[in-house]
């Protein structure tokens, strides 16, 4: 109470005290009114569900919906709800009804429908990377950019043995950092961050950065801040009115996240300009070269093409943000799990020594001869799923899925 007294200026404090005194005789009437509102909300929600063919689900509470009943393991809570309501059900989170797809068949059915490939207009990433083709802009731009990014990455060796040498080289740099510890304990997260993003650097910029490079350390720090702070902004998805509250951008971490994205953008801009100045269309070095060549080709066909400077830098931000963090987190979990289960670690180590030995580097094809290690990796990703929930989709038109009617503008 002393803390509140210091925060509230005397005039406001006096007004609040006067208000409390005036309404205190009616406290029971107010309580009855709140209970009546709650009951009316429950009855109204129940009747609305009965009259519609909307997917069933728990009702929840006024204002907050079902959010108070969800734990930190939201995906596990939703699995339990799926067992009760079926492969397609709805949950009210805050002021938004969210349709949940639970089960391989229903997900496969839904994702083949173009009406379900929209992006939510209140996606918090629009505050930080508004030109993102993958998370913010409409489905046609997403399809066009995704097609090009995937193909260009394949051409550069992603998903093929062509990129193995670069990955192995980066692993050796990481091992050199560990050796310098001389057997002393170390939190592998710190050296693992530049190692992961260096693999992305090789694809996007055609080069790697030393672990102690101040520019690369600045990049890694702000990638971490952006990923951690961005999760705080998702409240606007479920409570859109939050953004109208004074100073909401501060407690929702919007300003902090935007500042991190601005630093990341300033890191990428000179790298892209270097590529513009040294571009040779006959010698494609990396993703930026590929995009610059495509930009010129598309501009000749259509002056209003979406292949432009802003989309390029947004794509680079998305590739780094999604690529480096996910791989690093997966590897960290694997390291922690091996430390927690030494018996499993010994079996994996024994299989590595038997199949690969100590005289050569591992190759992706070795995985076929290492069933135990492969099984451990798959079980690790199942057990510690780093993205348990898919990105939120948004309906572009009324549609029927799994026998239920899902209206337009539904999440």
UniProtKB/TrEMBL annotation:
One of its GO terms (biological process) is organic acid metabolic process. The keyword Membrane applies. Its main location: endoplasmic reticulum. The chain crosses the membrane at residues 26-47. GO terms for molecular function: heme binding; iron ion binding; oxidoreductase activity, acting on paired donors, with incorporation or reduction of molecular oxygen, reduced flavin or flavoprotein as one donor, and incorporation of one atom of oxygen; steroid hydroxylase activity. It is found in: Endoplasmic reticulum membrane; Microsome membrane. It comes from the Eukaryota. Keywords: Endoplasmic reticulum, Heme, Iron, Membrane, Metal-binding, Microsome, Monooxygenase, Oxidoreductase, Transmembrane, Transmembrane helix. One of its GO terms (cellular component) is endoplasmic reticulum membrane. It is a peripheral membrane protein. Its cofactor is heme. Belongs to the cytochrome P450 family. May be involved in the metabolism of insect hormones and in the breakdown of synthetic insecticides. This is Cytochrome P450 2J2. It comes from Trichonephila inaurata madagascariensis.
